[in-house]
């Protein structure tokens, strides 16, 4: 429950004080992506949604994190129950809509092939 609350608060912080997150964006993204593989499906789903919301809020500021996040989300799409699959697809869509198109395409092709 605490992890879900923490994951919920990250996009709220990104909306109200993005400068706080931008300085430690790499660390935050690593922490959130590590929760995507959490055995508790609600925590995993919350982490996936959080990643999508970060793409929607921070937009091109998330360019530097596209490769790592795409790899994690593509793995989830490949090997997860349907409700998690849907959230991962939605987050990937938010990534594609909000980062630099060339970064998104490169990450999806490179990580998709692997």
From TrEMBL:
Classification via InterPro entries: ARM-like, ARM-type_fold, CLASP_N_dom
One GO term describing the cellular component: cilium
Pfam families: CLASP_N
Location of the CLASP N-terminal domain: 16-105
A GO molecular function held by the record: microtubule binding
A single GO BP: microtubule cytoskeleton organization
Domain of life assignment: Eukaryota
UniProt name for this protein: TGRM2 protein
Taxonomic source organism: Agelaius phoeniceus (Red-winged blackbird)
Lineage: Eukaryota, Metazoa, Chordata, Craniata, Vertebrata
Designated gene of the protein: Togaram2_2
